[in-house]
Amino acid sequence: MWLEQQKDACPESSALGKAINYILKRRESLIRFLDDGSLPLDNNRCERTIRPVVMGRSNWLFAGSVAAGTRAAQIMSLLETAKMNGLEPHAWLTDVLTRLPSWPEERLHELLPLNSFNFSISESTPDDGTHVVS
C-alpha cells in the first residue's frame, strides 16, 4: 500500500507522519464502506445532526449544574434519535410523556425512539398543525 511505503520515508513526529499513522491505524474502519454498499462514504448526516448542539454549546454553559447539563444532553439525544427514526420529535415526546405514568418499568425500552415501529407518525397531519402518534 502506498501509505505504508510513505511511512518509512516520513518522520513519525511530522504532521504528515502523524496523518499517515492515523490512517493506517484506522484502515479497517475507514474502508468498511467498501464491504457494504448501504454505508455512506461520509458522516455528513451525523455532522448535521450534532450541529445544533455544537452551535448552542456556549448557550448551555449555564445549565445550572452538571446533572442538569447531562439531563439536557440525554433529552436532546432522544429527540435526535426520534428524528432519525422518522418520528416527529414533539409528537413522540408528547406520546411518551402521556404513557409514562402508567407504563410498566420493565417495558420502558419500548418507549425509546429506536423502537419507533411502536409509535409511527400518522401519514396525515391534522389541520391544526399537530401530529398524531399511533
Please supply descriptive tags for the structure shown above.
134 residues, mainly alpha, 6 helices, 49% helix, disordered C terminus
Strand content: under 5%
| Helix residue percentage | 40-55%
Question: What class, by secondary structure content?
Answer: mainly alpha
Q: Provide the domain count.
A: 2
Annotation field: number of helices? 6
Low-pLDDT runs of 5+ residues are 120-134
> What would you call the quaternary organization?
single chain
- Summed over residues and divided by their number, the pLDDT gives a mean of 81
Radius of gyration: 22 Å
Envelope shape: elongated
Number of strand elements: 0
Q: What is the straight-line distance between the termini?
A: 54 Å
Largest β-sheet summary: none
What order do the SSEs take from the amino end to the carboxyl end, as H and E?
A: HHHHHH
Describe this structure in words.
It is a single chain. It contains 6 helices and no strands. The chain is mostly helical and about 130 residues long. It has 2 domains: about 1-35, no CATH class; about 45-120, no CATH class. Helix 1 packs antiparallel against helix 2 and helix 5 (about 65-85) crosses helix 6.
Q: Topology of this structure?
A:
Layout: H1 2-9, H2 15-25, H3 27-30, H4 44-56, H5 66-84, H6 89-99
Helix pairs in contact: 1-2, 5-6
